Amino acid sequence: MIISRYIVRNIQLGTLGAALVLLSLTLFSVFVGEMDNMGTGDYGLLQVIQFVALRAPGKLVEFLPLAVLLGSMLSLGALASNSEIIAMQASGLSLARLMGAVMQAALIVAILSFLLAQWVVPQSETSARQLKYSKQTQTTTLRANQGLWVKDDSRVLQIASLLPNGIARDIEIFQFDARGKLYSITHAESAIPRGKGWELHRVEQSIIGDDATSAQYFDQLIYEGNLSHELLDVLLIEPRQMSIVELHAYISFLEENKLNANVEQLLFWQNIFAPLTIMVMCLMALPFVLGAQRQANSGQRLLMGILLGLAFVVVKKLLTQLGVWFELNAFLVALSPNLVFFGLAIGMLLKKQTHAARNRAQNQATAY
Description:
Oligomer: single chain
Distance between the termini: 36 Å
Order of helices and strands: HHHHHEEEEEEEHHHHH
Structural class: alpha+beta
Number of helices: 10
């Protein structure tokens, strides 16, 4: 148990170091890119710093698989170079126990990544775009627990959920007169963008008079607003940044309206398997620190880790494109890159185990 904790701690420290380096480089690049936008409206240095900070969780989740791979290769490689892994194996540490310790370290990082992706990233990415747009254009918007609030001339809109392509669900429109008195409340179950307004569906409109309130019902109603596509793009959560729950709801909406949801289904299953990707990346490091590879230096391991990470990205993108083009099963397409690299890692480990057993047998035969 002490050996396992020692390995887990080293992998986690290595992953933390790699993640900090990758995140710092990425955020610096984002900061430099935002320098050209400074001075537009109220978008100054402080707002740029806030924007970069809000992008940090998303960038961290994006680079965690590569950080785990690099951190594991460097930390386990350091143990191998110091002959610590050999000493552990000589004291009775089997390959299975070594793999178990590696998987334990990866599981902790995978859980952290999953929690960030589901509960932090969707809000932080949307808040970053909202901050930038509102400061550059002085547009008033507010995101609260009850949904999204937007001021549109003399109207205030409450939007429960804003989906890609500007599609909205569960909307209330509060119309005020010139004196600031509430004139009407319009509720729609859904809305589709039409120019700078919306085509509202299944609408209930209440007209508030001095003495009484009247209600009207419409299957469709056109809302002639002043909502730009840029504003809607800023406020919505992109599918790749949605949580699993939000993606499932969006897929259900598309299917109810007989729209193609292949891409969204693929994103859904990729989110499900994201923790598995981190565990596979951690396992991939193990074959490269055993056997003859233990004499490699840190630079060589870093290069191997980067190449492996790039290979995984290429395989994932290739399989994803093939899956979208040929409308293959989204579950299998999302799982396949992990299966390919998991099989590769297990194959290399078994090959090294067989090679080590053969060397031991030859050494025993020579001794006799």
